[in-house]
Amino acid sequence: MTATVVETPRTGPRLRRWLFWILASVAAILLAGFTLLSSFRGLVDQGLYSATSPSSAGSKALVEVLKQQGVDVVVTGSLDETRRAVSGAQGPVTVMMADLYGYLDDDGLEALGDLDADLVLPTPSDDELDILAPGVRTTAVESSDDTVDAGCGIPAAERAGEVSQADIAYTADPGDATGCFDTGAGAYGLVRLDQGDRTVDVLGVSDALRNDSIPLAGNAALALGLLGENPTLVWYLPTSADLPEDAPPTIQELTPGWVTPVILLLIVVFVAAAVWRGRRLGPVVVEEMPVVVRARETAEGRARLYAREGATLRAVDALRVGTVQRLSTALNLSRSSDLTEVVSAVSAVTGRPSAEVYDTLVGAVPAGEADLQALSDRLLVLEREVRAATRPD
């Protein structure tokens, strides 16, 4: 019986062994926390058409250029703020409105239409078109070109020349509507309605407002021309503040104020309990335990597993590997000897043809358990002959 003595690891060697993983874990936690904090800080500014977002979907670049050109840009987040900005402006006003999440109902859209200001509506919904741009309808873009020419008399479009292909095309009833950037079949990427004392521009070329695509073609000239016609621009993205008073409450409004502190307290309690229990249990102590595993038991157990799974090839491979190793030892061959050297040496001491030895050690593939048994007997006979030939007299 052989006893295996295991010493209890000391704190110093264990700490040095795990130091790299501890430092890597701490670095990963800090990086994840920094990333999460950065994402929370920039969450508000990641939306499409955000006037303060430098992201690819934002419009900060356009807003900054408009300010440099002397346009007074007022960013608003509610209809009341927009109404006050329009009424307090000196001179004509342009309102750029993009209701991305449908906060404005019909009453809010009608109130927006009553403002004394030109409107620019990038990719508006059907409800917005019905109220703010009657007679204009959405349609599919049939042209596959990357850019499209102006083809109209609107000054901003003429200066642009050509712009990126529209995301959405529009058709308009004949009358006071002017279409620019023909996308095919009488549909346009820009439609301007002349409503007497003001204009309403329906813009399907959303690339003209985005940071990542405004430098392409004449996108910048088109956006600056439409939004910079008047000295004051109100950049209006509706928010939840525009929801009607009788609207269903949001999840934040339904959540009691004590829920968040309780969740934070539970997290602190969980971490404290984990640390407390971890310190209470202490390090693992490994005792000295004699263990003896007989080779016969291991071989029989492995054989039963192979038989149960029908792993004939795996079984014969195990037999051959063991036989080759024992033959190499009996023939005093080095560990680096290849199978060809083993076959030659076995053939030399036993007098058997090399082809027969190779077939026994490598080539023969048993078709079933009977063939496996026969091959096992051949391996055993071959090993006995080698031991008999190399055994000293």
Topology of this protein?
Blueprint: E1 3-4, H1 11-41, H2 60-68, E2 72-76, H3 79-87, E3 93-97, H4 106-113, E4 118-122, H5 126-132, E5 136-139, E6 147-149, H6 155-160, E7 162-164, E8 169-172, E9 177-184, E10 187-194, E11 199-203, H7 219-227, E12 232-236, H8 251-254, H9 259-281, E13 289-290, H10 295-309, H11 312-330, H12 339-350, H13 354-363, H14 369-390
Parallel strand pairs: 2-12, 3-4, 3-12, 4-11
Antiparallel strand pairs: 1-13, 5-8, 6-7, 9-10, 10-11
Helix pairs in contact: 4-5, 11-14, 12-13
How does this model look, in words?
The structure is a single chain. This protein has 393 residues and is an alpha/beta fold. The protein has three domains: 35 residues; 195 residues, no CATH class; 96 residues, no CATH class. 47% of the residues lie in helices and 15% in strands. The chain has 14 helices and 13 strands. A seven-stranded mixed sheet has the order 2-12-3-4-11-10-9, sandwiched between helices. α4 packs across α5 and α11 runs parallel beside α14. The longest helix has 31 residues. The N terminus is likely disordered. Pfam families: DUF4350 (PF14258).
